[in-house]
Amino acid sequence: MALDVYVGPLARYYAGDWESVSESADRERAPSGRLRRSAEAGRILQSVLGWRQDLAAALGGDPTVLLDWNERLDGPYFTGRPGWDGFGSLVLWAAYAEHPALVLPTSLPEEWDNDPALVRCNADGFRSRYSHLVHNVELWLPSAFAITFEGEDVDRRRVVIGSAATLARQLVDLNSATWKGSDAELAMWGRRQPSPNATLELRARYGFAVMARLARRAVEYHLPMKLDF
Fold first, then answer.
1. Can you give the residue range of the structural domain that contains 82?
2. pLDDT tens for residues 17-50?
């Protein structure tokens, strides 16, 4: 199963008026005009706005979580594909950075979400430096707040929600604490997806380049960021 990351208006996402990385490539090879505005776009927009009001009410008007981004159906959007290998490797890289006494695996384990370092990062009472990456977040809001929390997404699924601004800062901190990669190096890491037999670190670097770029876009354009799978 592929893993894409979407940054943009949620109404546009749920209306299907966007293209993943592979879909965009397919469209460039064989233009077909298949990307069309959904006839239900207006209803979807109202659903997203209603969800946002419900979320604000559930948070009790928490002033640190501002739900004020522009939900334009024709607003800009950005996508990237870290893949599960890239994203999972990045998550474990962060988890092992917090638990250096544990031995980092050379390749991504098949059941990486049960990895001992990641389990420790999510243990009660542990304050992770990379919480908006390692806490199983699926949706990051364009507001700067410290916590991650469980809530409903637009489809009324229970998901963990975080902050795009905090994620962007934590990714910068992770690079500073481990790789110390320059801007030129970060750009190079994201140019080509590593081969299936690449090491966990190479995959983590690729995942980092994709996630950091999209988190910056989310902050710059004040837009939500979410996983798509």
1. 4-228
2. 999 886 665 444 434 333 445 568 899 999 999 9
